[in-house]
Amino acid sequence: MEQIKSIWKITKRVLLLALLGVVLLTAGGIWVISTASYSDGTRSGRLIKLSKKGFIFKTYEGQLDVGGLQSGASGEGFTSLWDFSVDSGQQMVLSELEKYSGKNVKLHYEERYYRLFWKGDTRHFIVQVEPIE
């Protein structure tokens, strides 16, 4: 009987360590996928919108009018808008965006593999803002 208790104790410990390992690997994988970028670049245009949205998790979202007219299926023209997000930890970027609202800017962004819903609505996150004169 004592031997069965000993085996059960060891089995419980191994199962708990295995469960902890799976949880840590999953959390690490989600963190890597949501913060790693696979593409970066720039977009230029007129900054037309920057807003803080969300019910519980507030995220910063914006739109850039990259210009040009595109023709729709019915022949009507519309401008090209590009949606982006700003990480809430990027206070300097947020203040720059607010300063240049309605003006022409060049936005440097990182495109991430995956987005977490509390980080933003898009996978394009702004990392730097430059005014265009």
Keywords:
OB fold (Dihydrolipoamide Acetyltransferase, E2P); 5 strands; 2 helices; rod-shaped
SSE blueprint and pairings:
Layout: H1 2-35, E1 37-53, E2 59-71, E3 77-86, H2 91-99, E4 104-112, E5 124-131
Antiparallel strand pairs: 1-2, 1-4, 2-3, 4-5
Order of helices and strands: HEEEHEE
CATH secondary-structure class of the largest domain: Mainly Beta
Low-confidence spans: pLDDT under 50, at least 5 residues? none
Structural category is alpha+beta
Main sheet properties:
5 strands, antiparallel
For the largest beta sheet, what order do the strands appear in spatially? 3-2-1-4-5
- Total number of beta strands: 5
The helix count comes to 2
CATH architecture of the largest domain: Beta Barrel
Mean pLDDT: 85
Radius of gyration: 23 Å
| Distance N to C terminus | 83 Å
Provide the helix percentage.
25-40%
CATH topology of the largest domain: OB fold (Dihydrolipoamide Acetyltransferase, E2P)
Q: Which geometry do the CA atoms define?
A: rod-shaped
Strand content: 35-45%
Total domain count: 2
Q: What does this entry show, briefly?
A:
By secondary structure, this protein is an alpha+beta fold. It is built from two helices and five strands; from the N terminus they run H-E-E-E-H-E-E. Strands 3-2-1-4-5 form a five-stranded antiparallel beta sheet.
Describe this structure in words.
The protein is of the alpha+beta class. It folds into two domains: 1-35; 37-131, OB fold (Dihydrolipoamide Acetyltransferase, E2P), CATH 2.40.50. It has helices at residues 2-35, 91-99; strands spanning 37-53, 59-71, 77-86, 104-112, 124-131. A five-stranded antiparallel beta sheet has the order 3-2-1-4-5. It is rod-shaped. The protein starts with a helix and ends with a strand. The model has no long low-confidence stretch (mean pLDDT 85).
